[in-house]
Specification:
The structure holds 2 protein chains of 2 kinds. Chain A is α+β, with helices and mostly antiparallel strands. Chain A is built from 3 helices and 11 strands. Chain B has 2 domains: 38 residues, no CATH class; 318 residues, Cytochrome-c3 Hydrogenase, chain B. In chain B, strands 3-4-5 form a 3-stranded antiparallel beta sheet. Chain B has a 3-stranded antiparallel beta sheet with strand order 10-11-12. Chain B is elongated and about 100 Å long. The relative contact order of chain B is 0.17. The chains are: A alpha+beta, B alpha+beta. Chains A and B meet through strand 5 and helix 3 of A and helix 2, helix 9, strand 10, strand 11 and strand 12 of B. Chain A: NDH-1 is composed of 14 different subunits. Subunits NuoB, C, D, E, F, and G constitute the peripheral sector of the complex.
Amino acid sequence: MSDETTGTGRADSVQPVGIERKGLFGAKGTGDTSGFGGLVQAAPTAGEIVSTPAPLGGYFDEIVDALRELLGEEAVRAVVVDRGELTIYIAPDRTAEVCKAMRDDEGLRFELCDSVSGVDYPDQRNRLHVVYHLTSMTYRRRVRLETAVGLDHPVVQSVAEVYPTADWQEREAYDMFGVVFEGHPHLTRILMPDDWEGHPQRKDYPLGGISVEYKDGAHIPPPDERRAYK
Amino acid sequence: MTTTDHSSADAYAAERDTTEGRVYTVTGGDWDELVASVDPVSEERLIVNLGPQHPSTHGVLRLVCELEGETVRSVRPIVGYLHTGIEKNMEYRTWVQGTTFVTRADYLAPIFNETAYCLAVEKLLDVKVPRRADVIRVIMMELNRISSHLVALATTGMELGALSMMIYGFRDREKILDIFEAVCGLRMNMAYVRPGGVAQDLPANGVQMIRDFVEYMPKGLDDYEGLLTGNAIWQERTQGVGYLDVSGCLALGVTGPVLRSAGLAWDLRKTMPYCGYEEYDFEVPTHNGADAWARYLVRLEEIRESLKIISQGLDKLEPGPVMVEDKKIAWPAQLALGADGSGNSLNHIRHIMSQSMEALIHHFKLVTEGFRVPAGQVYTAIEAPRGELGIHAVSDGGTRPFRVHMREPSFVNLQSIPALAEGGLLADVIAGGASLDPVMGGCDR
């Protein structure tokens, strides 16, 4: 961890995935005479989340309004509509409350929690995101809830009480990203061995692998150390 | 009879003899105390590790069972033995290469993994695949659903001692794998469905092979029904075993045939159609048993429905491209089929090697660098043989997936094993687990 506060800690040996890009053609030193060598491109995933202005269209307004009415304005931090999908950003310490409202309210009725997954955005202050996909079988609707925590306090409220199916999926998010789900009945590793160190799907965790040696000493390095386009 | 004489009998007596045997009345929370004083075996709890290498656990699944005699008091499924880091690996490959990774997750339903992933990539790219590609995808998915259900029937049969069912199931699955081999050169892990369409068109004899299979399969199904449905042992082993009702399914996120066996006709092909499923005429079979027997019946009927869909798909096939027109995305899709799998597109090679240097450069960039996918995230879900297969794909605008998460039905459904099996007999753990049809490659990814 080189820099805990910016959350950009990353071993330099690891090939960058989804982080700030420097230069356009990958030339270092004097090779690039195009002038693009000094170009710095921020990753599109690095910035703040910008809400989509209302009206959102379709049933999206209905859901967001119902949620605001039930739990107050501050329950919804941001609302993004992209590619016909609704994402509601919520606070990490209110996930269970929001999910309970989403499940029980007559106008919402999201009976099924499809998926809980983690995403690591290394350029963001709160880099560990937890994403819930809910389905309303009654209304045939889908919604995505998203919350984010930083490495300094990676604690998200567990929704396993509301949706028992989240049990294993939260364990997976803990295993792979190190998100701690508060209130989970037995938060242990699930896919990796119990004594594994680190959280493999964080962006600063190397892919690993060994190079393959061919006849006459040719080496093919493992995928994360191969040359790649910028 | 004294039992009917309520006025004189003490309703709160601790025990009384009836024609049914001795009846104990418990009014408080002193269950354990009473059971301990009555049942001499209860102190003997035996911990049995079933698996991870066990022929009856559907792959490398470990079940830690706490037994009291033959009765299972608790089951703890332990997964992860087949974790291969597919999701992590994909972050280091291009979007097209991603199909070769997802296809290896649930190895009995590779076409579904590919299609779900490609639908996600296409949604991120905002491209629409040609109609012929959609129809081919549907045909291939339904063939794959049949082959997966056949393995489910075969392995369940094997695990419950019906070994002939295993032979028949795998025999008929082989016919589907032959079709797959003719279409894409490989029997499994085909990477046939690609972002933007499919890797290549059906071969000249493809349609005829599929028609022959559609004609053949109902006879096979009749055989299975003759073998199992009326079989008293099969009924005894499956009826009332592994019970999980609708509310249990929803709480535990269980979808697919298991949910439909509990009576809820939730099938994403009907409720949230994709790939043009709304154009096909088929039923969603359901049952009310919510047990292993009902799941067996649902799977059998789903095979018949899949055959209907395949026939309709073959009729819908019209000549046309099988890959999007956009050359910035599309890999050459008119491939020659070699003896060892899909080969090259000879016209394309001629074009890039001897006609156009720009085409060569474009081809090189497309294959080595890949195409860029606009930043954002999507979730697409399809009805896989085991339930909802969801792909949560995140792009940062680059040529590689930023994150791909597979919502695997095997992983989610396996959580319900304790609910299915606790309180039942040890033998029913196997029947209940088999009725979920988990595939560990998908579960552990």
